[in-house]
Amino acid sequence: MGVVTSCLETEKSPDIVTCKTWIGDSGKETLIFPELQEDSPHLIPSLLAKPEVGLCLGGGGMRAVTSGLGVLRGLHSLGVLNKLRYLSTTSGSSWLNGPLAFGKYESLDKFLGPYQTPNELTVIKLEDVGNICEGSFAAAITESRAMSSFAADLVKDNIKLSWLQDKSCGWSQAISKAFLVPYGVGDVTNSTVTAIGTQGRVHEAIYSAAEQMGKAVFAYSNLTLPFPIITQSILQASDERLFLPAEWTPLYVGVPTQLLDSTGLKYGGGWIEPIGFNSTVIKSPDSTLPTGAEGKAVTVELKGNSSLGDAVGVSSAYIPLICSLKHDEHILLLHRIPLGKGKVTDALDRVIGGPSSQYWDQQDWKDRSTEWADGGGCDVLGIYPLLRRKVKRIISWVPGMVDPTDQSSFMAGLDSVALAFGAYTGPLVNKIPNALKNSMGQVFLSDGWAVLWSDVSAKLAPGGPVWHRNKYQVQLNTFLGVPGCWEVEVLWIFNCTCKEWESLLPADTKDLLQDDRSSKLLKLEQIAAFESFLPAGLGQFPLIDTMCMVYSPELVTMLSNQSAWVMMKLGDQIKEMMR
């Protein structure tokens, strides 16, 4: 069977490998999604047996990963998590998708942790997240010190700069240490990925090739879980759009559209198996043969890492990118290192900003060093991969940090939602003109934005979940590769202040929440969000700033369980989406 040679034996050099590539443009519906293609060896039959429903978890650092955990916990409690076909994540929520899909844990129940109703959340229980959820991802979030680890590496190597010469990114290393290492899948520098359960047993070829290359393999193997998609982007500073869309999955990675940047460089369109990513082309495919469901063989020479840790780290590279923009003007984190100018600063710019990968397009097969960046550069919501696949029903968790009290501030705080309707009129995003930004993001008719705003703003005052459900005629978006002329149903659910949930908390927890919100420490938290990454308490709950990277046990327990409660309250709506 062709796919058993999906990755042929490695050549004389362990860095040279032959693998599969798929060519096309998802917006034109000429690029296949191998996991769904019935005649593809990469087909995962169990996915086709599931309802055409996908979940997307939006970005937002620790707020996104913590609330996203609660979303999964609630869906699992409702008995619908195993019915989802896809889980698409971006930025901070990808810290959850990686260990969920690939990690080694005792059971899903323990990984997600128990759902606790608001009346159960006494102060003692808030503090005891590690014991209550032993082995859970909630404990991993509480114990994570990604920024501290990142800063410590900078301190340790401030003079010798040894790790700056590594092809991996220091940020990916820190994120892996925090969220992947606890689940046995944290090797950033010498590993690859695959999926078990394909009809062509693709994983056998991947394991064989990886063994010859001396690489570990981490597999998406629990097929009751949704197929993971992690959004990324390519940072192209010379292009007026700034970021170009990219995806990463267990079976393939790449740019789904055929793009031309402002300098004439081509990007996309197509996929390559992860084991062959970050490479130069040694032998391009035979152009006289059709791509087909099996893909084409391409021989490449690896130039760096392409690991799960890199995928998760790149997807969330917004935070270190902001750090790199600030480090010339400010001291670095809590360690107060004066970085100065010159070689050290230049090196930090390269490493903090995200890893550079050797990327080649599937049009001219030309490679160049390319900086890969946060998935939020093109898709803060994580919704576009699902629309590329024409998923009929989408549950979109939007972990924002603004309540819908005022349309202009809500739009500014959640520009990604308005952009999906081509209706954004707020402050410039990345200095890109609004007309261009709207054209880059629009996939729904503009009048849908006003309907959404009217509904969610009305739902805030009663204090329950803030949500909106509607059907949309999808508009063609050539930049993002979203095909048009079909209908999708979206259940939007927003992270907002839920007075109803807060009213059910025990008295001591209510007092703690009120004290933190009125405390002068709130000002310190706000400073910490941008400067020193001090621990965040409950002062901003649940609208914690994206740049806060250290969460207290109380905050992790509160935020994850409020999100789970929202899912439970919307159980009827969610179950209807699973039809």
UniProtKB/TrEMBL annotation:
Coiled-coil portions: none
GO CC, one annotated term: cytosol
GO terms assigned for molecular function: phospholipase A2 activity
Name the UniProt record assigns to this protein: PLA2c domain-containing protein
UniProt source species: Chlamydomonas eustigma
Domain of life the protein comes from: Eukaryota
Keyword presence, Hydrolase: yes
GO biological process, alphabetically ordered: glycerophospholipid catabolic process
Annotated keywords: Hydrolase, Lipid metabolism
Pfam families in the record: PLA2_B (PF01735)
Domain named PLA2c: residues: 53-113
